[in-house]
Prior knowledge:
Blueprint: H1 3-16, H2 58-76, E1 90-93, E2 98-101, E3 122-133, E4 135-136, E5 139-140, E6 144-149, E7 162-183, E8 188-210, E9 222-224, E10 229-231, E11 233-245, E12 248-259, E13 262-272, E14 287-296, E15 300-311, E16 313-319, E17 324-327, E18 331-342, E19 346-369, E20 376-401, E21 404-413, E22 419-420, E23 423-432
Antiparallel strand pairs: 1-2, 3-7, 3-23, 4-5, 4-22, 6-7, 7-8, 8-11, 8-12, 9-10, 12-13, 13-14, 14-15, 15-18, 16-17, 18-19, 19-20, 20-21, 21-23
Amino acid sequence: MPKARLIALVVASGICAAPALAQEKLAYLLPTLYGPSGLFVASEARLPTGETHSAHFNSSFQQSFSPFNTALATQLASVPLPSPASGFTYTYDSALGVFNRTTESYGPILSDRAEPLGKGRASLGVSFQRFSFDRIEGLSLDAIPVVFTHDNPAAGTGRDDVVTTTNSISVQLSQLTTSFSYGVTDRLDLSIAVPVVTVDLNATSLATVRRIGTTNPAVHFFFTPVGDTLGSQETFRRSGRATGVGDILLRLKFEGVKKGAFGLAMGLEGRVPTGDEKDLLGSGTASVKPFVVMSAARRVAPHLKVAYQWNGNSLLAGDVLSGRKLDLPDQALVEAGVDIGIGKKLTLALDLLGRRVIDGERVAAATFLALDGRSSFPSVRFFRGSYTLADGAIGLKANPGGNLLIDLNVLFKLNDSGLRDRVTPLFGIEYSF
């Protein structure tokens, strides 16, 4: 075996050993997909000076793929939590010395309503959601094409060659959220929600050398030990899992207006960055979300919630490799729906949920044109811009007895913007006391 080829084998072995890296945090998985030193392609060619040709495509990789990691990570870490609103709400009748229910339905599941719990009343809930993301900005995560160019590309030379990649990325997120709400007064509720998050991230990249500037396979190749050949393709794989506490939510809600069945409340939510952003368990920054919610306490009870969430600087919005933080995109939210009391034991909950992400990292399909002016390959482009995520939800709240509720809900996407799961199930239980 030629010495140069032996060196290539050693380098390739080091690159493919990426899963053995000590730095196994999930946010580093995509930036180090091709190994600790980035994307290198083996070469036996020599420059006119006699030096070995450097087949280095890493600068293009960092410029072309790091924004994808940012787009994926920021959206993954911003998955909304279920509302900690209680299904049972009461007012205290001082003349009779008893609590009376104020609503004829058990309320929404993912949204909110204006009615408070009632002074001294409490609610404890546990819910489970499972997201299996399969698309980002309408692009299938099973086949994301990205083209990498040689460092210092030049037409008519070996540096005209490119490496095309087809990337398959699998992302699953499970969220077990425990929430507790307490009626401080007849009009003021205090709530806390604590999620335990599990993220599974797997990435596979099939890289192919496209010899545009040269026909000599020794200039750029992936070394193939079997048969001692100069290959044009290599497959890279990395995977990881992380589990831990996510970002904790704290909320105050005050019912400021109550006229007959109509109520209007205002409140403030804050997310505490308790989740490890390097493992994609949290956003890596605190956030503040003031909101207003209106609803009617009837058997057919409409509700509307409007909110705006301000976020701070996060590593996930910047560059995880350099440690540079940037502003995590703010979000404007509108939620509208109706919950319908079906008899005394069952409520049907219907919701439309909209989130407007302000100036976030985006990705779109594109075509790469090589320096020869003829060769073209599918790729993606990255840009910053605002986008809207629209979802629908349908669910049931059932009361098997006492103050216990069982929640079943399905969230489904209505558009393709952002990181998307086609259908997200939710199961929960609530108990009021």
